[in-house]
Amino acid sequence: MIRLFAPIVASSIALGLGAGCAALPRGPAVPPSDTVRAQPLGIPNARFYADGDPAPMVEEVLKAVEREREALRAAGQPTDPMPPASFLALSGGADNGAFGAGALYGWTTTGTRPEFRMVSGISTGALIAPFAFLGSAYDPLLRKLYTTLGRDRIFLRRRLTALLFSDALADASPLADTISHYANQELLDAIAVGYQKGRLLLIGTTDLDAQRPVIWNVGAIAASRHPKALDLFRKILLASASIPGAFQPAMIDVAVDGVEFQEMHVDGGTISQLFLYPGSIDVRLVPTGRRQTAYIIRNGRLDPEHAEVERRTIAIASRAVSTMLQSSGYNDVVRAYFLTKRDGIDYNLAYMGSDFDAPRFGPFDEAYMQAVFDYGYNQATGGRLWHKAPPGLHTTRPERDAAAARPSDPATEKWIVLEAVRPEVSAMDNVTR
Questions:
Q1: I want to staple 256 with a disulfide (CB 3.0 to 4.6 A). Which of 34, 52, 179, 401 is the partner?
Q2: Are 345 and 296 contacting, i.e. CB atoms less than 8 angstroms apart?
Q3: What does the DSSP assignment read for 92-132?
Q4: In this structure, are residues 163 and 169 in contact, taking their beta carbons and an 8 Å threshold?
Q5: What pTM was computed for the model?
């Protein structure tokens, strides 16, 4: 979502350098030494820091597998080996989230869409994730959300003085109202049922105070039955889509040893535009003997989009932010690719190709979103949705060796660059042979 609002972000950075007005009041931030110990609603497994100790998340996955086994036994189904597992990761992308919605809708139409054991989402992907987690029965709702939700249901423009006297250039209260309407108690209760069967719904935000990526364990929050669980769920969804500088941050109350603090959370895409699971997790610690498949939906294009940049400060800053985010999005899908190769998980990637060229007349243009939705739907029903590797990467060692014999081949040049800047490419050689 951040990329769509790159001009606003760039303007905030440029103008904010000279701003010195008083900040809005907030609760005290968590002390650095207590960041990991802070608990929202007193739920110990409500969230994990993606860059922290992987042990708590591994423990959560082990418990999820055991809950799944219990559900299988209750249904009279075998547990040795465990049935195949499918994982879904949904990226950010603002109104391009219509691609993911259309892809899921079309995937259902083909009759091949699985039930996901784990769904993760960031930004617009976080808004899709609960519905994808709950299954195809929610496809019509996803279609409605991403083809009829105009800009006035997402944000309201503020005056430029908001830069000095507020916490964002736009008012995201319409988005908060939209989330509150669809993310209701019935939805949260359904997520709790899935969690009790061993399935995981994970949402990514950025703890701006700590500058750390946070993975929210939504199923555990739902299953806690805490009276404030629904409010926290809505704040998590809002936080994941809150572009810093453009939309207000979500302030989340936590406690450490009975002392109350407040964390500032913003768009998960501030750090990463998608995640499958932290690379620090050793999947050998979760032995199931099952076949595992990962599906990555990148809500956007992965190729550069050419534009003639005006020689003005804001235009240059905006283009630089957009370029940085485009590169980051590509790096995220590549990172997920090498993670799956390391762990023996089948990799499948969907993204908007360079053949998509519908015009966009501003953020959340309904005609544009309908075109994006239709593109994702047609890609799925036409059997063109999934790719076995990010664009520019080879899927096997023989293909790579063959390319190496042709020095002028652009694909070879891509591999040379990757070898130079990504040590993990060499580490993956044995996997891709």
A1: 34
A2: no
A3: --GGGHHHHHHHHHHHHHHT-PPPPSEEEEETHHHHHHHHH
A4: yes
A5: 0.86
What are the tokens at 218?
């939504």
SS3 content of the chain, % helix, strand, coil (to 5): 50, 15, 35
Give the DSSP letter string of 387-406. Answer: BSS-TT--SSHHHHHHHHT-
- Contact (CB, 8 A) for 113 and 381: no
Amino acid in the structure at residue 196? Q
Three-class secondary structure of residue 394 per DSSP: coil
In this structure, the strands spanning 156-157 and 170-171 are: antiparallel
Total Cβ atoms within 10 A of residue 355: 9
For residue 361, give both structure tokens.
């007349």
On whether the CB atoms of residues 24 and 167 are closer than 8 A, the answer is yes
Q: What is the pLDDT along the chain (433 residues), one digit of tens a residue?
A: 555 555 555 444 444 444 455 678 899 999 999 999 999 999 999 999 999 999 999 999 999 999 999 999 999 998 888 999 999 999 999 999 999 999 999 999 999 999 999 999 999 999 999 999 999 999 999 999 999 887 888 877 766 655 555 666 788 889 999 999 999 999 999 999 999 999 999 999 999 999 999 999 999 999 999 999 999 999 999 999 888 878 889 999 999 999 999 999 999 999 999 999 999 998 888 888 899 999 999 999 998 888 899 998 888 988 898 888 889 999 999 999 999 999 999 999 999 999 999 999 888 899 999 999 999 999 999 999 999 999 988 655 555 555 455 444 433 333 323 333 333 333 333 333 3
Answer yes or no: are the C-beta atoms of 274 and 92 closer than 8 Å. Answer: yes
Query: What burial letters (b/e) apply to 334-344, b meaning 16+ CB within 10 Å?
Result: bbbbbbbbbbe
What is the number of other CB atoms lying within 10 angstroms of the CB of residue 209?
Answer: 18
